[in-house]
Amino acid sequence: MGEAQATLFEPDFNRSTKGHSTDQRLTSNAGVILLREADHRPGLVDAIAQNINEPRNSRRIRYIMDEQVRELVLAIGLGY
Fold it and tell me: Which residues, 6 or more positions from 45, have their beta carbon under 8 angstroms from its beta carbon?
């Protein structure tokens, strides 16, 4: 037959909650939840951000590097 395949990742959110809507104004960006979960378990964005040189003055930093990298990766994944 075939080999059993393990799941790539298991979502951390409560899977017993289900939503149903007939409203046509729903967002098409719901796929970002899947992207977030795919990043969360292996920590890909955190690993990338740790290897980026940070030349900025630490007293003037408002957004840390992993937040900026995560925003960029998710935006690209959503097609922005």
Answer: 39, 66, 69, 70, 73
H/E element holding 54?
none
Euclidean distance between CA atoms 1 and 19, whole angstroms: 36
Amino acid in position 42: P
CA 34 to chain CA centroid, nearest Å:
7
CA distance 69 to 80: 14
Contacts of 29-33 with CB under 8 Å at 24 or more apart are: 29/78, 31/77, 31/78, 32/74, 32/77, 32/78
In angstroms, rounded to a whole number, what is the distance separating the alpha carbons of residues 80 and 77? 8
Per-residue pLDDT tens digits for 1-49: 455 555 555 666 666 656 666 666 666 677 787 788 888 878 888 888 8
